[in-house]
Design brief:
Number of helices: 11
Number of domains: 1
Structural class: mainly alpha
Largest sheet: none
Helix content: 55-70%
Radius of gyration: 18 Å
Oligomer: single chain
Length: 243
């Protein structure tokens, strides 16, 4: 396993170790808590020397993501290097049936993925849940608003960026991690989101469970790349907006 320079992952160098905990756990552990058979991170000398100071080996964390997104045999021919993060992200978008333009920026692609997941969840929510959601995230609610209208609202939230966008992203990430690796987020900003998470945890959890059976999640690689990409999106927002 070797890191290939990737402009879309270089920001990981500046992420605090505590904020990398969940990503490292996703890369190294299965849903039942056992160490993944296919991971290489925990066997590296840097990990053994410095864990849990993840900043010391952020390049290996990035390399693990690149390699999980690549074909194993092709990786051998590339000297142990995986594929660029954008290829991993696009592959996940394809699996999740996201409508996207491959020429879009990384941020736009990640937001489209998050919106697809959110849209699936919104369609399962009752009018009462939609109203509570609106109040929780601070948007004006009209009694006739439906799931499709909310998608437009949240698109605007993502475009605006800042804390509301980050808050909404963490809600989505938290539910996905619970569904796919058996535990939610642990980093600091999670604490202030309890109410919003309570609103969305059920609907998004159901949406992800449905996707679990509809998508080829039987592949061990997708059980890693899907939650890993979602976490990268959250970490990128946290870094860009200095939250």
């Amino acid at each position: 396993m070797a890191y290939r320079y990737d402009t879309d992952l270089e920001f990981l160098e500046y992420i605090k170790s505590v904020d990398l905990d969940d990503l490292v756990y996703t890369l190294t552990h299965d849903k039942d808590g056992s160490v993944r058979v296919t991971e290489e991170l925990t066997s590296s000398l840097e990990y053994k020397r410095h864990s849990p100071n993840h900043q010391k080996y952020w390049e290996l964390i990035a390399a693990e993501i690149q390699c999980f997104g690549a074909n194993t045999f092709a990786t051998l021919f590339r000297g142990g290097k995986g594929v660029p993060y954008k290829e991993v992200l696009i592959d996940v978008c394809d699996k999740m049936k996201v409508n996207y333009n491959k020429n879009s920026s990384i941020e736009r692609l990640e937001n489209e993925l998050l919106l697809k997941i959110l849209n699936d969840a919104l369609e399962k929510m009752t009018p009462e849940e939609l109203k509570e959601l609106a109040e929780a995230v601070g948007v004006e609610y009209a009694g006739t608003i439906n799931a499709q209208a909310f998608v437009g609202v949240f698109q605007a939230v993502f475009r605006a960026g800042g804390f509301k966008s980050y808050q909404l992203t963490l809600v989505i990430v938290n539910a996905i991690l619970k569904a796919m690796i058996g535990r939610g987020l642990s980093f600091g900003g999670n604490i202030v989101l309890t109410r919003t998470m309570a609103v969305l945890a059920g609907p998004i959890g159901w949406a992800i469970t449905g996707l679990w059976t509809a998508v080829d999640i039987a592949s061990p690689a997708y059980r890693v790349t899907i939650p890993a990409v979602i976490q990268i999106a959250a970490l990128r927002q946290k870094h860009q907006h200095d939250i």
